[in-house]
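Quick one, tokens below. Sequence please?
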């Protein structure tokens, strides 16, 4: 098509989509250069620009492009889903709430929309509402992140059997998911399967050593196993990194030290 008509913008947009899928940055850049010369840009062109900016971590440019795309097509669920991904990356809960409501008004069963609604509900400790939203999300798509979050909710209310099944599904789908491994480790710890719990927590620590919560939970596991010396060693190492601990982790460590008598 482009050999016959080098000015065919639809063809350049289609080619750009292919370059994006194939991770061909040089080819994508050429397509974008051609499209930027157009006097008028349509919905597909603007969406491609947003995806390219998102890929390059140019989040402000991506948001501008997706905003423009929604002006051209206000009922585009896929663009609203991309907006939600940006909201999560930029930690903009204010925008996320607007985009979630808008997306779910278009598609009440949307997997991504219900997942992000659950995330907002979890941040407010609305566990029953979050559980309902996560079950809706999983009814459409078994996203590892939704499996993990529902597993966490069930862990919180001590529904360990279903929590374990969901968390195992999450790590089966994404073996490099440290939060899911940590939550699985907690389920196994609470059900007194200590060797398997330690293995899961150790995996979580190895994948994300900067998340100290898994190490806090490993210290708690050691205490439950009766290995106070090892727990104290872990706790001492954590206390050397006070600025990296969350408030909840510091409170847990204080409680664990009292349990040991130190």
């Amino acid at each position: 098509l482009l050999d016959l008509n080098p000015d065919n913008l639809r063809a350049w947009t289609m080619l750009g989509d292919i370059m994006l899928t194939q991770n061909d940055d040089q080819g994508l850049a050429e397509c974008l250069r051609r499209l930027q010369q157009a006097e008028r840009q349509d919905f597909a062109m603007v969406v491609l620009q947003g995806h390219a900016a998102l890929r390059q971590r140019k989040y402000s440019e991506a948001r501008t492009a997706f905003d423009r795309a929604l002006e051209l097509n206000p009922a585009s669920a896929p663009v609203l889903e991309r907006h939600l991904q940006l909201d999560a990356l930029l930690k903009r809960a204010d925008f996320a709430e607007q985009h979630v409501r808008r997306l779910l008004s278009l598609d009440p069963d949307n997997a991504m929309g219900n997942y992000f609604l659950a995330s907002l509900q979890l941040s407010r400790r609305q566990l029953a509402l979050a559980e309902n939203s996560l079950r809706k999300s999983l009814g459409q798509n078994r996203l590892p992140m939704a499996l993990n979050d529902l597993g966490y909710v069930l862990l919180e209310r001590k529904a360990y059997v279903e929590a374990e099944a969901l968390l195992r599904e999450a790590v089966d789908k994404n073996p490099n998911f440290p939060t899911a491994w940590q939550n699985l480790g907690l389920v196994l710890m609470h059900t007194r399967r200590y060797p398997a719990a330690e293995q899961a927590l150790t995996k979580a620590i190895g994948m994300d050593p900067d998340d100290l919560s898994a190490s806090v939970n490993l210290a708690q596991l050691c205490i439950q196993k009766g290995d106070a010396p090892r727990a104290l060693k872990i706790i001492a190492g954590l206390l050397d990194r006070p600025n990296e601990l969350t408030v909840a982790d510091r409170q847990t460590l204080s409680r664990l030290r009292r349990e040991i008598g130190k």
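Residues 59-72 form the longest helix (14 residues). The mean pLDDT is 89.
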